[in-house]
Automatic annotation (TrEMBL):
Keywords: Transferase. Gene3D superfamilies: Glycogen Phosphorylase B (3.40.50.2000). Signal peptide: none annotated. One of its GO terms (molecular function) is transferase activity. This is Glycosyltransferase. Residues 182-316 form the Spore protein YkvP/CgeB glycosyl transferase-like domain.
Length: 336
């Protein structure tokens, strides 16, 4: 099948992890994937899809277009897919206006109803799409990581213990809300420090912070040079739609993870198997203390986590979900 993806940017993290990552494996299975950046101008939106008639399917990623634009696109392409990995029908956790946004919700419904297939990053998002279309028009394909990019953490029994958090300026807002607990960890667990891999930095005294400027070529190596991954998100509707990429990255590097059990973080992090779930400050301190004091425990949990990523959340595993979805899409269209 010849596919074209309509994306905000090829460098956008969602495009890189949810589409570009599968390009080579899809080609090996006989499917080509090309990219086009979504036009921003009215003239560009009016022409959207006119030059896509030769493709078997167009994949609209994340962007909620006005109903008229989605309608035009639907009429001009052979098949239309929508791929999303966030609760795009809501405002985010940091909006002063609250979560509900009638315009986003209306656009989301129009987009879902126009598509032959909706690809959601997790069950929570899939269930929202299934409010508007039959369940057989919605499938879940999780965000996946390329294990070959990640060296495996060494888990030395000596030296300072490094917690690691990776993210961007926008998601750092969430970690800043978590500052009291991070400061408490710094007071309660001597010798622990926090490695921030980001494009903006902050402090959580007395917890020492190691600043590491994010870069794509070095990201995986920097994660693997730490000891424990941490994942904290607000417990709210926006966060329950997140796909927990950072948790998968930590696990791909063989790190145990401590995270609050919000959304899929509660699926990825299982107590004493791949890490520890923690909600209260005392639970966070206890989990970090247990892992900091036992290199063998960190290694065991990290190895289990990496095996699970390989089996369920690696590019090699995820591409088969894409292939099955495309085969089903092709068969359904032929039958119709």
């Amino acid at each position: 099948m010849r596919l074209v993806a309509l994306v905000e940017s090829e460098s956008h993290v969602c495009c890189r992890y949810r589409l570009t990552a599968f390009r080579r494996a899809l080609a090996d299975a006989g499917h080509s994937l090309e990219f086009r950046e979504l036009p921003q101008s009215l003239a560009g939106r009016l022409a959207l899809g006119r030059d896509l008639t030769s493709y078997d399917a167009a994949v609209l990623q994340r962007k909620l277009l006005p109903r008229w634009a989605v309608t035009l696109l639907r009429h001009r392409v052979r098949r239309l897919l929508f791929d999303f990995d966030d609760a795009v029908y809501l405002r985010d956790s940091y909006s002063a206006k609250g979560f509900d946004d009638p315009k986003r919700a209306t656009r989301f419904r129009a987009t879902v109803e126009a598509c032959d297939l909706v690809i959601a990053g997790n069950r929570f998002l899939a269930e929202e799409a299934q409010k508007y279309v039959p369940a057989d028009r919605v499938t879940v394909i999780p965000t996946c990581v390329d294990l070959d990019r990640y060296p495996v953490a060494e888990h030395s029994a000596t030296g300072a213990i490094k917690l690691v958090w990776v993210g961007s300026s926008s998601t750092l807002k969430g970690l800043e809300r978590f500052a009291p607990t991070l400061s408490a960890i710094g007071r309660a667990v001597p010798g622990v420090r926090l490695k921030l891999i980001c494009d903006r930095f902050t402090e959580f005294p007395p917890l020492p912070v190691e600043r590491c400027v994010w870069s794509e070529p070095r990201e995986a190596e920097e994660i693997a040079a730490a000891d424990i991954g941490i994942g904290w998100v607000p417990d709210d509707p926006w966060s329950r739609g997140k796909c927990a990429l950072k948790v998968l990255q930590y696990q791909a590097a063989g790190l145990p993870v401590v995270a609050n059990p919000v959304g899929v973080q509660g699926d990825f992090v299982r107590d004493n198997e791949t890490g520890f779930c923690a909600s209260t400050t005392d639970e966070w301190i206890g989990a970090v203390r247990a892992l900091a004091g036992a290199a063998t425990l960190r290694k065991r949990l990290g190895e289990t986590a990496r095996r699970e990523v390989r089996a369920r959340y690696s590019v090699a595993a995820g591409v088969w979900l894409w292939i099955e979805a495309l085969e089903r899409l092709g068969s359904a269209r032929k039958a119709g």
